[in-house]
Write a structure and sequence with these properties.
62% of the residues lie in helices and 11% in strands. It is an alpha+beta fold and 480 residues long.
Length: 480
């Protein structure tokens, strides 16, 4: 079925987004963001079928490397609210084969973006469910052999965006005509085309939510409501699309779970390090104070001995001084052996430790700020997955959906490492724990008929399970 979907977006630091994170996810690669020091590793993604970078002729050759290109983009931006890149995602056509879709994608990207001077990073995704689409990430500055120059404001024109939308439809329609197909797509709005269907709000697939690090829950809820109203106008759903969406939600949930675990582990390591540093600072202070107190006592005894009369016995005070000198020497040796510096530097060294602790506490705060939106995303993914699972239970093609889900999971498990498999299994266990709260929350927003069917389905399952338990109890009793 010919499909027109074309969405544009801006990656900006003000929203907490990193272009290195975005392109790593879209390309299914590992990229280190040199500005933040964070490693973004999405090599476990299985739906990326093609990536490439297309450069204008005046761009340096080193920009052919993805990590080099986007780290240089990050370095070129100095403001904390900078817009680092422009992105587009648009649907490819299932009527075209892989080579044909790649051909029109390259042509479109060259004619509309690269020819104007933009560096383009292309990633084609296909979850094997009839939903092929392409992500294009574009630079926003003029480029030369020396690197990036000024921002090109001409690329921000609304008229240009409309032209880009129209051009994609034109190129696809040319290909339909070339292949002798009747299908056509239209870049105009549904209303302009006279189609009675409510347009949805674009919130993207599961990976899109992850890249944004926190899509508004109200926006997602509104989109679900619009989608539901459209579904009421449509008599059928595509079981394969449902299965693919659920699989993608599960993948997103697993990736987020791993990132959350990694951040929590880093936080735990930092807490331990802070505890060790505080303990060390305390030991340094206490032992240095002990040496200082002993030294002061020695000075007092020396002063007393000097003020004693010529004929007064000094034997006892001499013994005290020798004892203290021995203790002082041992304490000083022990201090230097344990801490690797002289006790006179105790104040300086404790200040250094205090600075390290403050730096670690700041890192802790930054990690916590990164963790919060990830937890929100993970909860949103789990909630939507539960909702889709509930709808699947009453879907007329439930068996087809479940079979496709199984095939998708078998395929991804074959390509995973042992560590990735364990992460997938852990995420699966989390998603399969559906309690009463999840059930009630899952049916919110459903149309009344579906909610009623779901409640009837649940009651029927409870009755069936109860009957099975009674039957097993009878069998066990008779065997005795």
């Amino acid at each position: 079925m010919a499909l027109y979907h074309f969405h544009g977006d801006i990656i900006g630091r003000s929203a907490g987004r990193s272009v290195c994170a975005g392109v790593a996810y879209r390309a299914g690669e590992k990229i280190i963001d040199e500005r933040t020091g964070i490693t973004h590793d999405y090599r476990q993604k299985t739906d990326v079928i093609h990536t490439e970078i297309i450069l204008p002729s005046n761009a340096p050759e080193r920009f052919s490397d993805r990590a080099t290109l986007w780290n240089e983009v990050e370095r070129a931006e100095k403001r904390k609210d900078s817009q680092t890149a422009r992105t587009f995602d648009f649907a490819l056509q299932t009527e075209f084969d892989y080579d044909e879709n790649l051909e029109i994608t390259r042509r479109y990207v060259w004619e509309n973006f690269v020819r104007r001077g933009m560096c383009a990073d292309i990633a084609i995704h296909d979850g094997r469910g009839g939903n092929p689409h392409v992500h294009v990430t574009l630079t926003t500055r003029d480029v030369s052999q020396k690197g990036f120059g000024e921002k090109n404001r001409d690329w921000n024109q609304i008229q240009l965006f409309e032209k880009w939308r129209e051009n994609w439809a034109d190129i696809c329609n040319e290909k339909f005509k070339e292949k002798g197909l009747k299908q056509r797509i239209n870049h105009k709005t549904l209303k302009a085309q006279g189609i009675d269907r409510e347009p949805t709000i674009h919130v993207g697939v599961a990976g899109k939510n992850m890249e944004k690090r926190g899509v508004s829950s109200e926006r997602a809820k509104e989109n679900r409501e619009i989608t539901q109203r459209n579904r009421q106008r449509e008599e059928a759903q595509n079981p394969e699309n449902i299965a693919d969406f659920m699989h993608e939600l599960k993948q997103g949930h697993t990736i987020l779970d791993r990132e959350i675990t990694s951040i929590k582990e880093k936080n735990a390591d930092i807490r331990r390090e802070i505890g060790n540093l505080k303990s060390r600072a305390k030991d340094i202070t206490e032992q240095a104070e002990h040496i200082k107190t002993t030294q002061k006592h020695l000075e007092e005894l020396e002063e007393i001995r000097q003020n004693m009369g010529f004929f007064t016995s000094k034997k006892e005070i001499k013994l005290q001084i020798e004892g203290l000198n021995y203790t002082q020497g041992k304490a000083t040796q022990s201090f230097e052996r344990v801490f690797k510096f002289a006790h006179e530097r105790a104040t300086v060294e404790t200040l250094k430790i205090k600075g390290k602790i403050e730096g670690l506490e700041q890192t802790q705060e930054e990690l916590q700020n990164r963790l919060a939106p990830l937890l929100v995303d993970k909860e949103a993914f789990a909630s939507e997955y539960h909702r889709q699972k509930l709808l699947t239970d009453i879907h007329r093609d439930r068996e087809r959906i479940e079979n496709r889900l199984k095939r998708l999971e078998d395929e991804i498990r074959k390509n995973q490492s042992v560590k990735e498999n364990l992460a997938w299994q852990q995420s699966t266990r989390q998603l399969n724990i559906i309690n009463e709260r999840d059930f009630q929350r899952g049916i919110e927003g459903m149309n009344p008929k579906n909610a009623e069917k779901l409640l009837e389905h649940k009651e029927r399952k409870i009755t069936e399970n109860h009957a099975k338990i009674i039957e097993k109890a009878h069998t066990f009793t008779h065997s005795l």
